[in-house]
Amino acid sequence: MLERRVWLRPALLLVSLLLPLAAPAAGKCERLIATGNPDFPPYLWRDPARPDRLIGANADLLERIGKAIGVDIRVLYTGTWARAQEEARKGRVDLLAGASLTPERLEQMDYVHPAFLAADSVLWVRKDALFPYAGWEDLRGRKGAILANNSFGPGFDGFARANLALEAVPSLTQAFQQLLLKRSDFVLQQYYPGLATADTLGMLNDLQVLEPPVSSESQYIALAHNSACNDPWLRGQLAKKMTELAAAGVPQRLLEDNLVRWKAQQLQPAGTPTE
Questions:
Q1: What is the model's pLDDT at position 119?
Q2: CA 128 to CA 38: how far, in whole Å?
Q3: No. of H helices and E strands in the chain?
């Protein structure tokens, strides 16, 4: 019995020495709060059944990643896209569930690579008011509408500030309504959110998309610098799982599934449970 006790002592000592080294690898947070643009179907939108949360392709992707790495990720509604970004900057939420890469955000967020989807920003115009379009220069002298706080890449954003008349409006519904009322010549918006909203409003037969896209921006998950959960283990785990899912084509399938989901919700009478 004495020999067994002597053998156990160095073993226990070794375990006690290794535990402090192993602990950080498990991360320091069991739950993460994410938010994002609530007016961005099928990527993200507010859940009609539970208005405190966001649903959509980006939310499904984050929740799948969370389950894989053993972290509970909840995607919550925090207000407008501008408010969501502010919540992330201040560290009151941990993640943005989808954001394009801009120099300003790079100062406040760690981007999880690789990007999981590309969002083409296109021109939506009235079918009875088409105009020649081959590139940015063809937009000079025309009045356009965009959603407030939307970015279309540093190149186009700089060109637009210097050369274009773009009105920022609070919702895509309002932008499309103004377009049909001939108060603007085009609406600049990502293709899938534009498609989902125009279909819901019954405007698809009145609108047309002009090619080529104004810009194409990659969508990333972004982790706030000021998040108390931002550590090397979490960044590494998020990147590893995102790499696996992107390579398997999961984000695109989730996008297509949620386009169907969004359309089905719009056909339901008010108050009908969505899940």
A1: 86
A2: 31
A3: 9, 11
CA–CA dist 69, 242 (Å, integer): 11
For the chain, what are the domain ranges? 28-118+218-267, 120-217
Architecture of domain 28-118+218-267 in this structure: 3-Layer(aba) Sandwich (3.40)
How far is the C-alpha of 194 from the C-alpha of 271, rounded, in Å? 25
Fold of 120-217: D-Maltodextrin-Binding Protein; domain 2 (3.40.190)
224: pLDDT strictly greater than 70:
yes
The pLDDT tens digits of the residues spanning 238-264 come to 999 999 999 999 999 999 999 999 988
The DSSP line for 167-203 is EEES-HHHHHHHHHTTS-SEEEEEHHHHHHHHHHTT-
pTM, two decimal places: 0.78
Tokens of 219: 């969508």
Give the type of residue at 138.
D
